[in-house]
Amino acid sequence: MSTAAPRTAGPDHLWTVDEHLDDILSTVRPLEPIELNLLDAQGCVLVEDITVPVSLPPFDNSSMDGYAVRVADVAGASEAYPAALEVVGDVAAGQSELLHVGPGQAARIMTGAPLPPGAETVVPVEWTDGGLGEGPVTGMRARSLAPEAAGGQVLVYRPAGAGAHVRAQGSDVKAGDRALEAGTVLGPPQISLLAAIGRGTVRVRPRPRVVVMSTGSELVQPDEELRPGQIYDSNSYALTAAARDAGAIAYRVGAVADDADTLRDAIEDQLVRADLMVTTGGVSVGAYDVVKEALSYAGDEDEPGSGVEFRRLAMQPGKPQGFGSIGPDHTPLLALPGNPVSSYVSFELFVRPAIRTLMGLPDVHRPRTRATLTADEPLTSPKGRRQFLRGRYADGKVTPVGGAGSHLVAALARANALIVVPEDTESVAPGTDVEVVLLG
Ligand SMILES: Nc1nc2c(c(=O)[nH]1)N[C@H]1C(S)=C(S)[C@@H](COP(=O)(O)OP(=O)(O)OC[C@H]3O[C@@H](n4cnc5c(N)ncnc54)[C@H](O)[C@@H]3O)O[C@H]1N2
Ligand code: MOO
C-alpha cells in the first residue's frame, strides 16, 4: 500500500522522505520491453522465458587432448606393460567428418572434438608416449611440425573407464529445458548461456535514457576559465555518472542559465531523448530559482497529476525537491537541489530507485546495514529532519567524513556510505548502533 502523501497535500505540507519516495515509485512505471542484441541487454531484466533449442554440449566430446580408444584395448595398461594401438588419424575441434575407431586402434583427439564412432573413452596424452616410444610425454607435437604423429603407433600407459574425459551430449542443458526465466537480470554468466544456446537477441526492459541538466548562471564547465563569482559545474557530472552507475543511458546537459524561457526551451529540446529528466539547482526560495519558476506550471490542465510539484522534505541535505511529469509523454522529472552534496544524496535516495524501477529491476534501493558509530564527539542533527551524513564504512564500523555542510564535495569523495540519523534524534553518541546506506 502506498504511503505517499496526496499530490494535493498543499504547499505547507512537510513531506517525509518515505512519502516523497512512495510518490515517485507509485508514479514511475517500468519501460515497455524491446528486443535487444545480447550485449546491449547486459544488466537488463529479461521479460521472456528462454527455452533451450539445442542440447549443450550438442554432441559427446573430449575434455582432454589425448587419444580416443576402446575401453577393452587399454584395460590393464601400465608403464611396464603399455597397450600398443594403431593411430588412425586426428579428430580436431570443429571437425564433422569422423574417423571410425576399431579394436586395437586409437584416434588422436583434441579438447572439444567429437568422440569418433567406435571410441568409448579418451586417454589424456600425458598417459601415453605421444607416438614417440620414449615413455610418458607432457603434450602433443604440433601437427604442422610432425604430421606423421597423426599415424603410426601410440603406447598407452594407463587404463581409462567408459566415458572418461568425455563430456556427454546434454550434460549441461537439454533441448527443451528452461534456460532462464522471465525476471532474470542479465549478467555476464546469463549472457554466456544465451550465446551458448545460440540466442543473439533477447526481449528485455531497456535501460532508461536519463537527461541530467544542471542550472545556474554561475556555472562554468571544467577546463574553462573561472571568472570572479563563478564555480565549476560538478553536479551535471556527478549525476550523469550516478545515472550510468544505476543502469541508465545518461546524457549530460550543463549548464542552463537562470532564465525561465531558456530553461523551458532546453527541457523541451531534451524531452525527445528522455525517459526521465533530472535537473539540479533552482528549487529553493531565492529570486533566481529558475527551475521552480519555469516548471511549477508546466502541467497539462486536462491531465490530473501532471505538472511538477515543488515541496519541502523533512530531510537534510535535500530539503527542497520537485517531482512530477512534463511534456506530451508525461516524462517523469525530478528537480533536485543545487548544493552538490544535496543533489547527490537526493539522487541516491530518489533518482536511483526511479531508474531501477523503469528497468523493472527487483532491487531498486541501495543496500543498508547497521554499524557502530566511531567518532570523537557526538553527531548532532536537526530535530524533525532525517539526516544523511557522509561516512566511511568498514568492518561493521562507520566514521563520519566531513561535516553536515551540503557544499563539502571533497568529503563526499572519501565517503562510501550515508549515516542515517532519524527525525526524532538530535544527538548520536560515539559507540551507538546506527543505520547506514552503502553507496557501493
Ligand atoms: N532562505 C532560504 N534559503 C535556502 C533554503 C531555504 O530553505 N531558505 N534552502 C537551502 C537549501 S537546504 C538548499 S539545498 C539550497 C537549494 O538551492 P537551489 O536548489 O535553489 O540551488 P541553487 O541556489 O541553484 O544552488 C545552491 C548552491 O549549489 C551550487 N550549485 C548549483 N548547481 C551546481 C552545480 N551544477 N555544480 C556545482 N555547484 C552547484 C550553487 O552555486 C549554490 O552554491 O538552497 C538553500 N537556500
Ligand atoms: O537541503 Mo539542503 O539540501 O540541506 O543543503
UniProtKB/TrEMBL annotation:
Q: Does the keyword Transit peptide apply?
A: no
Query: What cofactor is this protein dependent on?
Result: Mg(2+)
Under the heading Pfam families, the entry gives: MoCF_biosynth, MoeA_C, MoeA_N
Sorted alphabetically, the keyword list is:
Magnesium, Metal-binding, Molybdenum, Molybdenum cofactor biosynthesis, Transferase
Pathway in which this enzyme or protein is active: Cofactor biosynthesis; molybdopterin biosynthesis
The superkingdom of the source organism is: Bacteria
EC id: 2.10.1.1
What is the catalytic activity of this protein? adenylyl-molybdopterin + molybdate = Mo-molybdopterin + AMP + H(+)
The residue ranges of the MoaB/Mog domain are 211-357
User: Its function?
Assistant: Catalyzes the insertion of molybdate into adenylated molybdopterin with the concomitant release of AMP.
Entry similarity comment: Belongs to the MoeA family.
Q: What is this protein called?
A: Molybdopterin molybdenumtransferase
Q: What lineage does the source organism belong to?
A: Bacteria, Bacillati, Actinomycetota, Actinomycetes, Kitasatosporales
